[in-house]
Specification:
- With about 425 residues, the protein is an alpha/beta fold.
- It folds into four domains: about 80 residues, Nucleic acid-binding proteins (OB fold (Dihydrolipoamide Acetyltransferase, E2P), Beta Barrel), CATH 2.40.50.140; about 140 residues, Rossmann fold; about 100 residues; about 50 residues, no CATH class.
- The chain contains eleven helices and 13 strands.
- The strands form three sheets. Strands 1-2-3-5-4 form a five-stranded mixed barrel. It has a five-stranded parallel sheet with strand order 7-6-8-9-10, sandwiched between helices.
Length: about 425
């Protein structure tokens, strides 16, 4: 028996076999419809979700599922369906009220401590979000509000979750509504005006991660941010910290590279320093110290001579004055004082010179102890390659190569005839 059924199309899909499967629905019921390839080739339009159509066909039972379906013979378009018209009208009205305005949307916190997730605890969505968060931000906590994400209780359940998180603002920093993809009927709860206004009145930022990337609902337009998928929502809310960690890793690698570069430079400078250069520097340092000692000795002798000369002049003047008064007695006293002062000055100058000599001897002894030349005088030798590099292992030369050996006195030139390594 042929039937004529009018309704709105949803969940339209074409199979590789050429058959077209769709759902015919109104505000209260839905009916699966199949249009086989022969009849589908006769259609003069392309069925699409949201179209209102008049379908003629017959009822049948699909045994594999035990499902009642309508096998369609023809489809006649009737314009936009009632549900699609209602969706567009609600969208237009909320847009006019400013609920979709960009300046109303709140920015997400850059470094959240806890995220409130409204989703079904039995679905794979929660596992996907937890996996992404654990990989990108292990210290971020998730607080889950279990809700029905499809069916007649979907809107009421999600609204309760939003209000619960707003009554406990210290528990989370933002809210994420998340569910996987589905048909238009499965996502119908997110096109309700009650949910749209609950999202708009939320004091916490709300992220909508509903369906797949091609699915759009009223909740997506009202939310502060729409994520194409639940996994993408988890990546968005952890993006700031992930960028910081990536930046720190790059800086760490840069510091390590700079450290290795400076270490290589230091090693190259060290390798360029030969034993002759070290001995030359030590010799120069000792000569500079000796020059300083000579300068100090000269200054000390000059100071002592000047003091002695001043005292001699004073004593001469005093002796002359005493000689005028009592020539014999004053002259004897003056001579004794002069000799005593001269002796004191000589002893003082001798002590200074002796201390300086001791310091010079100590410095010379330390230099001799550090000098490789002292080691060479005991029978050892320093061996160099023809290029002047210090030779520390036999495997660095080969037979026929020239070498130079520095001894305690003088040096030798030799040619390698044979090498032995342990």
């Amino acid at each position: 028996m042929d039937l004529w059924v009018e309704g709105e199309l949803s969940n339209c899909r074409s199979a590789p076999s050429g058959h077209i499967y769709l759902t015919l629905k109104d505000g209260e019921a839905q009916l699966p419809v199949v249009l086989f390839r022969r009849e589908a080739q006769l259609l003069r339009f392309r069925p699409a979700d949201g179209m209102a159509v008049l379908v003629r066909g017959r009822l049948s039972i699909y045994e594999s599922r035990g499902q009642l379906q309508l096998i369609a013979d023809t489809l006649e378009p009737r314009g936009a369906g009632a549900l699609q018209v209602a969706f567009e009208q609600l969208k237009r009205r909320l847009a006019e009220e400013g609920l979709f305005d960009a300046d109303r949307k709140r920015p997400l916190p850059a470094f959240p401590r806890c995220i409130g997730v409204i989703t079904s605890p039995q679905g794979a969505v929660l596992r996907d979000i937890a996996t992404v968060v654990r990989r990108r931000h292990g210290r971020l906590n998730l607080l889950v509000y279990p809700a029905a994400m499809q069916g007649p209780d979907c809107c009421t359940s999600v609204v309760r979750g939003i209000r619960w998180f707003n009554r406990n603002p210290g528990s989370v920093d933002l809210i994420v509504m998340a569910r996987g993809g589905g048909s238009a009927e499965d996502l119908a709860g997110f096109n309700e005006e009650t949910l749209a206004r609950a999202i708009a009145s939320s004091k916490l930022p709300v992220v909508s991660a509903i369906g797949h990337e091609t699915d759009f609902t009223i909740a997506d337009f009202v939310a502060d941010l729409r994520a194409p998928t639940p996994s993408a929502a988890a990546e968005i809310v952890t993006a700031a910290l992930h960028r910081v960690e990536t930046r720190l890793e790059r800086l760490e690698q840069s510091v390590l590279r700079a450290g290795r570069f400076h270490l290589l430079q230091a090693r190259a400078r060290y390798n360029r320093i030969s034993a002759d250069a070290i001995l030359s520097r030590l010799r120069d340092a000792a000569n500079r110290r000796g020059q300083r000692v000579d300068d100090l000795r000269q200054r000390a002798e000059g100071a002592s001579h000047r003091r002695l000369r001043r005292h001699r002049d004073r004593l001469g003047a005093l002796s002359a004055r005493l000689a005028r008064q009592n020539p014999e007695l004053r002259l004897v006293l003056g001579s004794r004082r002069l000799e005593s002062a001269r002796g004191c000055l000589q002893r003082f100058a001798g002590q200074i010179i002796h201390l300086r000599q001791i310091r010079v001897q100590q410095a010379t002894a330390r230099l001799d102890a550090l000098s490789p030349v002292a080691v060479l005088s005991r029978g050892y030798a320093l061996v160099y390659t023809a290029e002047g590099a210090l030779l520390s292992a036999a495997d660095r030369v080969h037979p026929g190569q020239s070498i130079r050996a520095r001894l305690g006195t003088g040096s030798l030139l030799a040619t390698v005839t044979e090498t032995h390594t342990p």
